[in-house]
Design brief:
Length: 92
């Protein structure tokens, strides 16, 4: 199960689809599972100092870093980190 959002590649500027999934953790190197989009790949990141499952641009292949997608106010998934986890615990 993947959630799709629109984003602009920071490198080539083209509109692309980016994806997140329930239970996603920042810079996680655990495989997101079967049926993942081809642009979600295990990629090397200098920011994370290692490899993690990240979105990539379907045009130029540039990594769309978790920090940008989740932590920047302009990011496609800003505020969504851990959301699936919280909802499963129930909020009164
Ligand atoms: Zn690009």
């Amino acid at each position: 199960m993947f959630i799709e959002r629109q984003a602009d590649c920071w490198k080539c500027g083209r509109g692309i689809n980016v994806y997140t999934w329930p239970g996603h953790e920042m810079w996680a190197n655990t495989c997101p599972g079967e049926g993942r989009p081809a642009t979600v790949r295990l990629m090397h990141s200098g920011t994370a100092e290692g490899e993690y499952w990240a979105n990539s641009c379907s045009y130029c292949g540039a990594i769309q870093g978790d920090w940008f997608l989740y932590m920047e106010p302009d990011g496609a998934f800003f505020g969504m980190e851990g959301e699936a986890e919280e909802s499963s615990q129930g909020i009164l």
